[in-house]
Amino acid sequence: MAALRFRAENSHRIPTTTRGWYFYHKSKHYYVMYAAMTEGLKMGFMFPPVILSLLYFERTVDLLRGRQDFLSTVIGSLSTAGLFSLKNHFNLPTTMHMARLGLVGGLAFGFIQDLHALGRGKRLDYVEYLKGIKGKIRGDAAMG
Predict the structure, then answer these.
(1) What are φ and ψ of residue 139, in 5° steps?
(2) Fewest 10 Å CB contacts: which of 11, 24, 33, 102?
(3) What is the pTM of this model?
(4) Distance between CA atoms of 90 and 113, rounded to whole angstroms?
(5) What is the pLDDT of residues 96-112, one digit of tens each?
(6) Does the CA dihedral 121-126-130-135 come out positive or negative?
(7) Interacting residues of 109 by C-beta distance below 8 A, sequence separation 6+
(8) End-to-end alpha-carbon separation of the chain, Å?
(9) DSSP alpha helices (H): ranges in 1-144?
């Protein structure tokens, strides 16, 4: 976008010589780099509060529920998406899109955390529950 803005702002004085084109592109590249660094800093200051709120909500839900699993991550990410949408005054379709992104991201990140915990030998309640159901189904099938 910065390159297009530079082109629009300087369209009234297009260079006519090779040297002029060289300095035009050199100036444009400096302009684009400056715009990219400015935008990068803005985004860099915006993301840490969002990530901290996600971690805060996830930890709070973990403490309230008394266990750590993917559901806490999903609730934390949905809460963060809602707060982010509220802060930025998004309309309903954009808010719903943010909620879907929060749900998908929370599920993915939560299951990755759970896989890591399983790899370390931690027992997860819902995995044990599913194993119990599977055992009951096998037991019922063997009896019938």
Answers:
(1) -65, -40
(2) 11
(3) 0.70
(4) 30
(5) 999 999 999 999 999 99
(6) positive
(7) 73, 77
(8) 69
(9) 2-9, 18-65, 70-87, 92-119, 125-143
